[in-house]
């Protein structure tokens, strides 16, 4: 993950009204220090947690899943579905600008990595075998997410 900011960076706001301005290197370092070793491995070093082991896989509560690193809302619980893959799966993001898709050529595969639209933290991968209406499956690591139940403060 290499988000960078410079003096000429202008604040960006998503269509849903959230700040997308990347954290400064100092702020990113401060936020990363608050992560567990496993969260750092996943978010900062493109790691993957073992299938069927993530703490949010079976969460059925209504709410919003946020980036564990920068707290940007990423997915609504209403977009979560049971994919049978062993990772929390969603068919659409909270806001299209909150999740960035880029090519991942690691491990001898060609696939679409998904990262946080603010901090660039690794979230998981996107596949084209999801349900309607999008046909996408955003396959997430629980370690990259923080769940905020409806009615709770982020």
Task: State the gist of this model.
The chain has 154 residues and is of the alpha+beta class. The protein is built from two helices and nine strands.
Structure description:
It is built from two helices and nine strands, in the order ααβββββββββ. It has a six-stranded antiparallel sheet. A hairpin with a 5-residue loop joins β1 and β2. The protein has 154 residues and is of the alpha+beta class. 11% of the residues lie in helices and 26% in strands. The chain has one domain: Peptide methionine sulfoxide reductase (Metal Binding Protein, Guanine Nucleotide Exchange Factor, Chain A, Beta Complex).
Protein traits:
six-stranded antiparallel beta sheet, Metal Binding Protein, Guanine Nucleotide Exchange Factor, Chain A, disordered N terminus, three-stranded antiparallel beta sheet, alpha+beta, about 150 residues, 2 helices
Q: How helix-rich are the residues, as a percent range?
A: 10-25%
Secondary-structure element series: HHEEEEEEEEE
> Would you count the extended β strands for me?
9
Shape: globular
Mean pLDDT over the residues: 91
Residues in β-strands, percent: 25-35%
The CATH superfamily bears the name: Peptide methionine sulfoxide reductase
Q: What is the count of helical runs?
A: 2
Q: Structural class, please? A: alpha+beta
User: What does the main sheet amount to?
Assistant: 6 strands, antiparallel
CATH class: Mainly Beta
Write the layout of secondary structure elements.
Elements: H1 25-32, H2 37-45, E1 63-67, E2 73-76, E3 80-81, E4 89-90, E5 99-104, E6 111-116, E7 122-127, E8 137-140, E9 145-149
Antiparallel strand pairs: 1-2, 1-9, 3-4, 4-8, 5-6, 6-7, 7-8
